[in-house]
Structures are given as structure tokens and as C-alpha cells.
Amino acid sequence: MILTTLLLFCSTAISADAPRTPTVPPSPSAETKSTSTSEPREKAESAIPDAPTPKAGVSSSASKAEFDLASGGEAASTPAIQPVLICPVKPATTESYETPRQRAIWYGLIAVSHGTAGFDAWTTRRAISGGYGVEGDPLQRPFANSGAIYATTQVTPLIMDYLGHRMMRSSHQWIRKAWWVPQAASASVSLGAGLHNYYVIP
Question: How many helices (H) and strands (E) does the chain have?
């Protein structure tokens, strides 16, 4: 029993004499540092915007459209891009009223009018060189004694060809019906003058 009392007394004496670790109170700088690091973190978290929540109708329609496209059909619920102009666009070309038949007749009248003009020039030159008359047209008189008359007599048929072609493509119906008149008149005048010159020579 005495031994037990000594052991208890020694254990209490050792525990009382053992050095104790002092508890250091936290410094104010550490507190300010911890508060300063926590404040920017809170500000950064408050500055981050909230993620938008998807609408139920939009997500369902989008998923339905994706399903339709994946299955090979057209997405009927998705709005399609509509064209600005519903009516068809008219081409920016002038409307042509001429027909293939009219064009063929026009080419035929070109050949006739220029041929009769050449016949008129030949008979005029033949009659003047034989001394059977003079040129009655004052515009053709300077060229009657030379071969230039073959070129000058082609000017009037060229003008009539152009005029007939313009009349053929006119927007007025009564002008389109008379498109052949200029060329026919030119050919008739040249043919009449050529026959007159031809029969002057006995």
C-alpha cells in the first residue's frame, strides 16, 4: 500500500513539473488576412451570373425537330426562312413580238431590196454611159458617173431594213402589222427605176 501511494505521488509530481505548451492567441494581421482573402472570393462568386434555365417548350420543340431531321422528315414545328418576294420575278429583258416566220420574211425582203437597188445602179450607169439620159435623183447625181453609185444606192435599203426591224418589235399592234411596208416600198421603187432605165436604151 505504501508502494502504491508512492507511485501515485510520483506520477502527479511528474505531470505537474512537465512544461506546458503555451497557447499563442491569433494575431490581428492574420485575422485581417483571412477576412481579406475571403471577401474577394465572395465578390467573385456574387459577380458570376446565374446560368439560364432552358425553357421546357423550346427544348421539347428542338428535340422534336432533331428527331424529325434524324428520321429523314422535315421539321414542321421549326420556323423556316420565308422568301422576301412571293411573286415570280420578271426577267429584265425587253419582250420580243417577232416570230420565226416574220424573221424569215424580213431576211427575204433584205435580199430583194438590196438586189433591186443593185439593179437600179447598174441600169443607171448603163444609160448614162450610153448618153441616153441623166440621173434624176439630185443626191445620186454626183456618183452616177463612177462605180460609187453601187454603194450609195444601198444606203436607203439599209435604213428601211432597220426601220422594218424596229417596227416588228414595237409595242403597238398596228405598227407591228405594217413592219414589212418600208422594205417593200424600197424594193418597189428600186425595181421601177431599174426597169425604166433598162427600157430607155433601145
Answer: 8, 0
